[in-house]
Amino acid sequence: MDVKSRHHLRSDEIDTIKTALADRLGVSLDSDAFELVELTDSAFDLVLVDGDPDVLYLDEEPFLTVRGANDHTPETGVVTVDAGAVSFVSDGADVMRPGITAADETISEGDLVAVAEESHGKVLAVGRALADGDEMVGDEGKVVSSIHHVGDDLYQFSV
Q1: What is the total count of domains within the chain?
Q2: Are residues 67 and 87 in the same domain?
């Protein structure tokens, strides 16, 4: 991932990010330094929060990165997977119904979601919901399309 440009965000842009993450994930970002990093050859841009790559922009929609979600634990918008799914999700696989133990019922199809493991609650991936939260637990089918996961280029990004 190469950096195309970097610049500090204006206060109204910071407020937009803070409000979106509070509304969607129940997360409060108590930080002052927000810097937008535009990446080449990437579907998203990155926002450094106090120097850490905590927020990504996908289709102009702010959401936490995996590292950001582990630093600022989301209260909503979370899909939880069992131990059998951890290695697959960590390698970037889409999330299948049999591996899900719980899903936030407020999730709607098309929402960005954080995928966490059930033992310690650590976030392993960020994906796009392919079903509503109340329909995610079941026997078959793909319900979350993976976008970003532990160990990928974005996860390893450093300034």
Answers
A1: 2
A2: no
What pLDDT score does 157 carry?
87
Residue 159 included in any domain: no
Task: Give CA–CA dist 156/104, Å, rounded.
Answer: 28
Tell me, yes or no, whether 56 lies in a domain.
yes
The rounded distance, in Å, linking the Cα atoms of 14 and 29 is: 10
Q: In angstroms, rounded to a whole number, what is the distance separating the alpha carbons of residues 42 and 55?
A: 14
DSSP-H helix ranges across the chain: 11-25, 66-71, 83-90
Asked whether residue 84 falls in the same domain as residue 62, the answer is no
The CA-to-CA distance between both ends of the chain, in Å, stands at 11
**29-76 pLDDT tens trace:** 988 799 999 988 888 899 999 999 999 998 889 999 999 999 999 999
Q: pLDDT by residue (tens digit) across 126-146?
A: 999 999 999 999 999 999 999
